[in-house]
């Protein structure tokens, strides 16, 4: 006997638990309503109207195919500084110090925040849209940000722009498509 869910929110919660059970994905990376529409029907359970609710009509294989099809292919990423906190790093025997700032890359889908990646920015503050000093943002900073994203399972689609939103996708989704 299959489980019956009273509300659409109950179904979304059930789908969220299934997606997040493996620890590798967030439900906010998927359009949950698309999965509900593809895999669940609403009606009386066992012919009794008092038992009406949503019932899964998909097989396990069909369910996970619907989940994959409902993935947001490309997500929005944006740099943010984590505050004015910074520290000075001694480069050892060179008698040189550099300022290091902590920044984050926040990744979001239409459904909400998906991930936050920490990035250390050396030799200059994160430029903002109103005061972009391109000399402070070097190719090394970009490479460091891309490496942090890749290590967390993300790949940049197009150009990484420090002062504006840019596009990312899960590395595994990119490789499979």
State the end-to-end CA separation: 36 Å
Main beta-sheet annotation? 5 strands, antiparallel
Label the overall shape: elongated
Order of helices and strands: EHHEEHEEEHEEH
| Helix-residue proportion | 25-40%
Task: Summarize model confidence as the mean pLDDT.
Answer: 75
Strand order of the largest sheet: 6-5-4-8-7
Strand content: 35-45%
**What is the structural class?**
alpha+beta
DSSP strand tally: 8
Count of discrete structural domains = 2
| Computed CA radius of gyration, to the nearest angstrom | 22 Å
SS element count, helices? 5
**Sequence stretches where pLDDT stays below 50 over 5 or more residues:** 124-135, 173-177
List its salient traits.
single chain, 177 residues, alpha+beta, 2 domains, five-stranded antiparallel β-sheet, three-stranded antiparallel β-sheet, 5 helices, 37% strand, elongated
């Amino acid at each position: 006997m299959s489980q019956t869910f009273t509300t659409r929110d109950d179904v979304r919660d059930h789908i969220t638990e299934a997606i997040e059970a493996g620890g590798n994905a967030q439900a906010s990376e998927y359009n949950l309503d698309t999965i509900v529409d593809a895999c669940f029907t609403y009606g009386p359970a066992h012919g009794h109207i008092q038992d009406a609710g949503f019932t899964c009509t998909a097989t396990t294989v069909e369910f996970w195919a619907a989940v994959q099809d409902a993935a947001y292919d490309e997500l929005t990423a944006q740099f943010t500084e984590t505050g004015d906190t910074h520290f000075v790093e001694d480069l050892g025997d060179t008698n040189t110090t550099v300022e290091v700032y902590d920044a984050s890359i926040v990744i979001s889908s239409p459904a909400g925040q998906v991930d936050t990646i920490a990035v250390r920015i050396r030799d200059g503050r994160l430029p903002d849209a109103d005061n972009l000093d391109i000399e402070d943002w070097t190719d090394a900073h970009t490479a460091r940000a891309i490496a942090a994203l890749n290590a967390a399972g993300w790949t940049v689609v197009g150009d990484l722009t420090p002062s504006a939103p840019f596009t990312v996708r899960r590395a595994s989704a990119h490789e499979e498509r």
